[in-house]
Amino acid sequence: MSRWSPQPAPQEPDGLILFDGVCVFCSRWVRFVIDHDPEGRFRFLPIQSVAGRALAMRYGIDPEAPQTNAVVLDGRIFFKSDAALSVLGVLRDTRPLAVLKAAPRVLRDPVYDLIAKNRYAIFGRTETCMAPSEADRARFLA
After folding, report:
1. What's the CA gap between 95 and 112, in Å, rounded?
2. pLDDT tens, residue by residue, 62-75
3. Fewer CB within 10 Å: N-end or C-end of the chain?
4. Distance between CA 66 and CA 125 in Å, rounded?
5. Which residues are paired to 16 by β-bridges?
């Protein structure tokens, strides 16, 4: 089993997305999920927060140099491409993209890793975590 294989996480809140709050690409991902999640299923936690750091460390993610985002769904935590595709599979508009999970993780995760490794260089980095709008603030846990 890979270090980044889905793991049981029954104590974690369902629909929680852990993300790199200073990564412009990651913040755009959060904005995309908010815009495509009218039911409000997903909540967000930046890894730079106290609670985000604690969650990351529980599941082996280095909060100083995160290699993955994560999502908790149905009592399991997913990482890397599994996380992204699991979220897309829940959102009505992007549900068909979940079929990509049929591809082996050994093929999907290197693409994820390439983007993750270069995300600051390609998309940029901010000095502070994204600030949610007043309307979205309740969906952020920190």
Report:
1. 19
2. 999 998 999 999 99
3. N
4. 13
5. 43
Question: Distance between CA 93 and CA 36 in Å, rounded?
Answer: 7
Give per-residue pLDDT as tens, 69-125. Answer: 999 999 999 999 999 999 999 999 999 988 988 999 999 999 999 999 999 888 888
The amino acid sitting at 55 is L
Residue whose structure tokens are 């009505």:
92
Buried/exposed code over 126-138 (b: 16+ C-beta within 10 A; e: otherwise)? eeebbebeeeeee
